[in-house]
Amino acid sequence: MSEPQYTQRRWLRAAGVRTVLAVLVGAALATAGLGPAAQAVVVPTTSAPAASADAAAATPLAVLGVSGLSWSVLQELAAAEDPQVAAAATTVWDYATANAPVNLVQRTIGETTCPADGWMTLGTGTRARADASHLGAVATCSGGTWADATRLAEGDGYGAEPGTLAGLLDAAGASYAAVGDGAVLALTTADGPPATAASAAQLLTATDGDAPDLLLIDLMDTGAGTPATTTAAAAGEADSDAEGAGPAAARAVQALAQALAELTGRARLVVVSVADPQDPSPQLAILPAGTTSPRGSDDGLLIGPTTHQRGLVQLTDLAPTLLAGVAGEQTSTASGLTGGVLTLPAAASTGFPDSSAPAAPASAGSDRVAALADDAAHAVASNRAVIPVTLGLLGAALALLVAVGVGLRRPRPERLGRLGWAACWVTALPAGIWLANLVPWWRAGAWAPAVAALTSAAAAALLTGAAALPARARRPRAPGAALALAAVGPVVILGDAAVGAPLGFNGPLGMNAVVAGRFYGVSNTAFALAAGALMVALAAGAARFAAGHAHRRLALTAAVGVPGLLALAVDGAPQLGADVGGALTLIPALVALGTGLAGVRLGLRRWLGVGVVAVGVVGAFALADYATGSRTHLGGFASQVLGGGAGATLARKAGALVAPFLTSPPALLALVAAVGIVVGTGWWLRRTVRAARAGRGPYAWLAALPTPVWLGPALRALAVLVVVEVLVNDSGLTMLLFSAAAAAPTLAALLLSMRVSPR
Same structural domain for residues 453 and 311? Predict the structure, then answer.
């Protein structure tokens, strides 16, 4: 829409508003006896609901969008040799210290997020994409169209509908406009593009009330012609002075600094970096001073309404926040948008720093921004460490099993004793990986993954030593230490999830803000590790607890049921683990373990009943979360079921089971190798056990030893665990690998300790 058409439409709307107000004032005067004789007055209504009084009284809301700017990049630019770039970065830094800075989760769909994807996600309120150019073998960003976004949304499974935010603003009677291609893309609907303007400053400085309620500005669109982007050419001259941060970042920070200088005091400003396709990491965002979160704040940083983490919000939280800022929170709540809502102040942003402010002020605001930069570096390091630490954990478990197999061929007490303690150390590795986050390993730069692995190994060694010290004071020695270490992994992982996952989030093997699949609770990896060790620990612990007990079945039921139900509550409760797949898996696995220890066999009908109970428990968790409005993973899924969108989510998760192996040759090769190892190991074990039972082979001596009563039920419970978790979790077969990496060393540690310690 051209500027004259936009101005004419605004003039007609203003004239209509004045007419309605005149009729209302005349009616009021007549009713009070101060005007003409009272008469019935019919006020015309529209189908769109009126915005709330608070929203109507608020100043315009403007979003300044860039790309490729994180807090660490801003720090680099502030130290650039070019004085213009350094001054612009310092200006943005100082502005952030006076307002509400946060890290922004910019990931949309896939590993690469292009600017068009970020703007489309902002306009839909859910993860979406519009740029199809990065879907090939080479990740590039060439722009996107509304038609591409509509086509891609049909197969992505996130329920994105391009134009959602604009449609909700129209329904609420709020006005909006766009400056720049990305902003136009975000606000385009099926009826066409939004009102556009060549200058944001002209719209926001209008004195006749024609300023839009919401204005989106794409500062990276140098063809928009706005005053905020007129320095793009000048920024290009400084590209060579900011090579570390990149030329685009230098242009972005100069455009942003000028936009802040021109628009501060004229509107409520929201600064957001919508994407970073070159170096995926949390991006910077600056909300107006006085913004509040329903989850409060921590050390002056807002806690994200959907991430539950300090200073971290999602890009999908901005659409409902902007809608609430211009049309009221009731309108945003009723909109159906699934993101969290941050409450913006009604007054214009006035926190622009003084030109005489020092380049790096030693203030609480500067400390907050520095903490955000450290958090972003933590997330990037976590993403880089996942594969090396995973390979280290799986490699340690595999090496242990090979060593145990070789050691049992020619058993000697001292050799088996060393193998037993090695098994205890590998058993403690998952807990050590979680505890590694207590040390700032992510600050080691390029060596961060190696430092994370070494820290995890050292933490596991400390746990093993701590378990061995009290065990050496009595006989038998090793079984108590092995059982304690078998339990420490589930206790650490589930206990961490119960308090918000401060160790699991951005950890060496946990969820992180770059992948952005989950931010709190129990992740798929965490569940597989905890549940694998839990089944073995409960089996051995329950048998030991019930030994010699007069009411053996009652003792077994209590020994399995009490800790098992506690683990289920932590894993599945909405405000704790919020794990749908884990809760569905844990119930049948616990039933298999308890009935196996008690000597009870379940038929098909009873197993169907167990499945119904599992679904019912998860459904109760989800409905409770939905009813309270907290909308964790469970409540969000309940909302999708009630809204009819659960089918797309289930289809997307089912596709995720096979997608990595279809798109990544290394992942497919790893799968083939893992399946080959599992099949080969199973064949070898079956052949070896048969020979041992027949009194042949090097392992025949093991057949003469008594088998622990808990071993069979533990193996059956593990079989149920891995089958169900692979079927109901979108991580698929990787769940089996992690559960095996936790359960196999635990079994080896317990069995070796029982054979060696009596001497």
Answer: no
Length, in residues, of the chain = 759
Domain that holds residue 492: 374-756
Neighbouring C-beta atoms of residue 415, cutoff 10 Å: 15
293 and 411 assigned to the same domain = no
Q: Is there a contact between 634 and 618 (Cβ–Cβ < 8 Å)? A: yes
> What's the token pair of residue 227?
């005053």
**CATH code, domain carrying 217:** 3.40.720
What beta strand segments (E) does 67-138 contain? 100-105
The total domain count for the chain is 2
In a domain? residue 552? yes
Q: Is residue 366 part of a domain?
A: no
Averaged pLDDT for residues 329-354: 85
SS3 725: helix
**Distance (Å, rounded) from C-alpha 235 to C-alpha 219?**
13
Give the closest residue to 374 by CA, choosing from 316, 310, 330.
310
User: In percent, how much of the chain has pLDDT > 70?
Assistant: 78
Question: Lowest-pLDDT range, 44-58, 514-528, 568-582?
Answer: 44-58
pLDDT at 10 over 70: no
pLDDT tens digits for range 86-141: 999 999 999 999 999 999 999 998 888 899 999 999 999 999 989 877 665 556 78
User: Domain boundary at 329, 361, 393, which?
Assistant: 361
Q: What is the pLDDT of residue 566?
A: 95
The region that residue 703 occupies, defined by phi over 0 for left and psi between -120 and 50 for alpha, beta otherwise, is: alpha
Mean pLDDT, the chain, integer: 81
CB-side neighbour CA atoms (13 Å) of 359: 14
Which residue in 193, 194, 186, 144 sits closest to 161, CA to CA?
186
- Residue 394 sits in the same domain as residue 419: yes
d(CA 591, CA 717): 8
Pairwise CA distance, residues 622 & 617, whole Å: 9
Answer yes or no: do 379 and 321 share one domain: no
59 assigned to some structural domain: yes
| 218 three-state secondary structure | strand
Q: Is 299 exposed, middle or buried (0-12, 13-18, 19+ CB in 10 A)?
A: exposed
What pLDDT does residue 634 have? 61
What does the alpha-carbon distance between residue 214 and residue 209 come to, in Å, rounded to a whole number? Answer: 13
Measured distance CA(153)–CA(79) in Å, rounded: 41
pLDDT at 238 over 50: no
Residues 602 and 697 in one domain: yes
| Rounded (5°) CA angle 66-69-73 | 155
List, in order, residues 6 or more apart from 593 with CB less than 8 Å away. 535, 538, 539, 560, 564, 713, 714, 716, 717
Q: Among residues 311, 332, 361, which one ends one of the domains?
A: 361
| Pair (460, 555) in one structural domain | yes
With beta carbons less than 8 A apart as the criterion, state whether 258 and 264 touch.
no
Are the C-beta atoms of 518 and 497 separated by less than 8 Å?
no
Same domain, residue pair 62 and 198: yes
Distances (CA, A) of 604 to 588, 593, 609, 611, 623: 13, 16, 9, 11, 28
* Residue 580: inside a domain: yes
CA distance 682 to 548: 35
Residues 307 and 394 placed together within one structural domain of the fold: no
Vertex 522 angle, CA 521 and 527, to 5°: 170
Return d(Cα 437, Cα 503) in angstroms, integer. Answer: 5
Q: What is the mean pLDDT of residues 367-393?
A: 94
- Rounded to a whole number of angstroms, the CA Rg of the chain reads 30
- What is the arrangement of strands in the sheet containing 283-287, beginning at the earlier edge strand? 176-179, 214-218, 61-66, 268-273, 283-287, 100-105, 312-314
pTM for the predicted model, two decimal places: 0.84
Least confident of 141-145, 323-327, 328-332, 664-668: 664-668
